[in-house]
Amino acid sequence: MKKLVAILIVLCMIFVGAVGCANVDSSPAEPEESQEVLPSEEPTGDAVDSDVPASAGELDFEAMYALHEPDEIVLTVGGREVTWAEYFYVFYTQASQIQEYFNVMSMYYGASLNWSDTMGEDSDVTYAQYAWQSTEQVITQFQAIRVFAEENNIELTEDDLSGIAADEETLIANAGGTEEDFERYLAENYLTREVINDINSVNYLYQRCYKELYGENSELFDEAAALKYLEDNGYISANHILIMTSDTSTGEALDEAALAEKEAQAKQIAEELQAIEDHDELLTRFAELKEEYCEDTGKASYPDGYVFTHGTMVSEFEDTCDSLEEYQVSDPVKSDYGYHVIIRLPADADRVMQYSSDGTPMSARAVAANAEFGQRMQTCYDSIELSFEEGFNPPAVGDYIK
Predict the structure, then answer these.
(1) Are 266 and 339 in contact (CB under 8 A)?
(2) Fewer Cβ neighbours under 10 Å: the N or C end of the chain?
(3) Gap between the Cα atoms of 310 and 257, Å rounded
(4) Tell me: the pLDDT tens digits for 315-354?
(5) Burial (Cβ within 10 Å: 0-12, 13-18, ≥19) of residue 156
(6) Among 373, 22, 18, which residue's Cα sits nearest to residue 225?
(7) What is the H or E stretch that residue 308 is in?
(8) What angle do CA 223, 229, 235 make, to 5 degrees?
(9) Does the reported pTM lie above 0.85?
């Protein structure tokens, strides 16, 4: 199945400074699936290039763009007509990324890739085919966002429109400050004003959909549903105090005397915590001791502990967590890192689980809400049909290599 969210992330990265990308991190529940950007199906149009030259040169985008008038309708997606200008700009961003990938692989790894190469040992899709496939997917995705918003009666707000206008002013300033500079910038990137405004509007609409349905910070997502998400996906909550058995500055192993001292310190901490019966008092004292003694480099990012699934932590840590009841404190557990004093915690919808790509902390509530949003958007995406105008076929990449 095609992954809408992954495409959105890719597209946001490749806009030539044109739009403010959505801040919502809509990763699916299964991270490994969210990384998939390669479709398994063949392209809709006649984009297969059997005559691509053996060496990869830069594409002659200018010659390709001149094949059609910017306002010519070349396809219909979900009942919406798409012009050559819009279609080609998305292709330009996709193909430019592939060309940059070729350059990086050549510069740093000495690999000589070309447009007729397949995208991996298990794939029969060439880079040339993928450039057009991903173009179709991105255009379909944009329409899915529009349709999703309409189905949920969501529209851009005055603040959104102001943000779009401000983004355009920023673009003009970055392009040189004058309308002439901006028009030149658009032409150099195969953009029209209509296309850039539409793309910007769709990105704001994507964010608006999330905010209206789940809240600015996912606060509208039901707590019970967030906790069920944790349970269904096998998440474990725990905190620990790590006493390291190596020198924190050099990384070298400590001598036997120092190791014995560390072990004794861990035992003392565990015994003190195990003697506390009141849960609130226990958590307060645990936090104090963690602040004083814990040498885990992640304690600043996860002061309240970790929310994780099996296979993501060292086995000694995971096995101990499995053996503990909620609010139970372990004896010191030794791993390659040192001695862990672990407390098993109840599930908490608002404890930080992870950080988004821009460094924003995400709670279980936010992760669950994003997963649901991604699934709902994916369902809408899967319902969108794309068809080319009669007689139109995407240009053969092999015919336009300089």
Answers:
(1) yes
(2) C
(3) 34
(4) 999 999 999 999 999 999 999 999 999 999 999 999 999 9
(5) middle
(6) 373
(7) strand 306-308
(8) 115
(9) no
Q: How far apart are CA 256 and CA 32, in angstroms?
A: 42
Tokens of 58: 């830069």
Give the model confidence (pLDDT) of 25-78 as tens digits: 433 333 233 323 323 344 444 444 544 444 456 899 999 999 999 999 999 999
Q: Name which of 264, 266, 283 is nearest 328 in CA terms.
A: 283
Cβ atoms within 10 Å of 85's Cβ, excluding its own: 19
Q: What tokens appear for 158 in the block?
A: 């005055």
Residue 400 is classified by DSSP as: G
- CA 311 from chain centre, in angstroms, equals 21
The 10s digit of each residue's pLDDT in 206-218 is 999 999 999 999 9
Q: How many residues does the chain have?
A: 402
Distance CA 200, CA 112 (A): 36
